[in-house]
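Incident log, structure service

09:12 report received: a user says their structure output differs between two submissions of the same chain.
09:20 pulled the input from the user's history:
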Amino acid sequence: MMLHLLLRGGLRVLAVATLLACGMPPTGSLAANEFTSVWAGVDHTCAVTPAGAAECWGQNNAGQSEDRPGPFSQVSAGGLHNCALTPGGAAECWGDNGYGESDDHAGPFVQVVAGWMHSCGLTTDGAAECWGRNDYGQAEDQSGPYTELTMSGAHNCGLTPAGVADCWGRNNAGLADDHPGPYVQVSAGDGHNCALAENGAADCWGLPDDGQAKDRPGPFTQLSAGDHHNCGLRLDGSVRCWGHNDFGQAADRPGPYVEVSAGSYHTCATTVAGDTDCWGDNRAGQLGRRLTISAPSAVTVGSRARITGRLRSIDPACIASQTVALRVLRPAGLPSRTTMTSMAGRYTFNVKITRETVVRVEFAPAGSCERVRSARRTIVAT
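09:34 re-ran on a clean worker, output below:
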């Protein structure tokens, strides 16, 4: 659905260098960044933290929005499942497993991708090893060699070292036809594909019902094809989108961003500073409007635990000076509730830990600001 993690071409490097040269550096060190990459799935989203954890949000009817500690170097959000790449090259998958799409595979792989009901891993020798639903041949292994893989509902594409888009699986409207390119990246949507030409143009083919299969001159440094829309990252870090736009998922954004990921009806992009900006459909919470919480899992008895976090993907006007409350659920005896005014959506609390403590952070919006779900954490006293 949206491959964007393995692009190493000069255009991508030039784009990041341009952002830094134009006075738009990261706002903090890498350790302070929230995410290193983000992947928009069907109705959920997953991202990798600097520590290598996979953090997911949105629809969770099959466990696809559960977080995983990792560490991982990459995560791919599919239909109702995800797959992530471990440091040893194994594929660790979770979520719906009706066709074996969430089975773990040892690899070793250099990339993993999750489709609607199947998954594939790119082996160290460039072959595609696939598993899961196979009614259109989408889970058949391919010898390659490929430099990257991309997949969507029932078809996949691999990019050869010569820049050819080699596709297989469901082939209505020619979406599984090979295209010679040469390309530097390819991204598969639900019924179409888009590939990035060496000059930065978007070459798209497949079902054109919402205009998603129309070519675009760019120049782009990265492309991401969603179900019925596409987005391209431009040299200045802005995002240009086209195709189906009923939920605003194909709206352009100024950025600057360093990557973009198009899902079914939403889009997410990552800033130079590691923040995540999502737009489009939010009926399942896939835009990530919520609180995050960070706290040690264990501290020495009698010491203080530093609890930090932020309000994610909420209108800036609603996080500038809103109240965040820390409620101690247990043990009894600690102050049950303390409040503070968040600074630019970020908060910090210090709690003395006498024994196992369960805390919950809540956002109390004022005016027209929407309420988001609370965040909870257990801290063990040792």
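09:41 both user submissions now match this output. Likely a transient worker issue. Closing.
09:42 reviewer note: The chain has two domains: 10-280, 290-381. The two ends are 45 Å apart (CA to CA).
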